[in-house]
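Quick one: structure tokens for this chain, please?
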Amino acid sequence: MSETYDFLFKFLVIGSAGTGKSCLLHQFIENKFKQDSNHTIGVEFGSKVVNVGGKTVKLQIWDTAGQERFRSVTRSYYRGAAGALLVYDITSRETYNALTNWLTDARTLASPNIVIILCGNKKDLDADREVTFLEASRFAQENELMFLETSALTGENVEEAFLKCARTILNKIESGELDPERMGSGIQYGDASLRQLRQPRGMQTQNKQQCNC
């Protein structure tokens, strides 16, 4: 049976190698921890249909390799992404220091309007923490990102990270800030017959005036 959904959003999971990106994706889709996780080679893919603010949204998620040698391959997947999880490891200062580069790539290659949530992963390893919640929170604020600490092991805040990002995209569509019709927006309508109903209220009125119907 084919899935029905209102919108499809293209998501990315980006960040340095070893931050637990694949584990986050696996936890989100399968609701369990991926025990035997090797470094991603190139790009992996997963999808899930979720309910966001009364709408059914299919998230099409690309999990990119964090190793430098795959950077040119993974960059080509950034194009047309509507949302991204930018992941660092709270026990690794090095992965936190690399965030600016990943953020620049996302905003340059994907879309200036990409909605990004910063995820400090491995929250379960709090005793080995090298990056405080406060400084990451400040980084997020300065760069206009949402922020959550997550644990792919326990599942804490994993679903919330994806849903929070999707909810923000949906709000921007409804306010007219994001246009699903625009090429490379990373957003598609599910059922075309409902497209008219889903346009922001202002646009509906405008269309009625134009056709005098």
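Confidence is low (pLDDT under 50) at residues 200-213.
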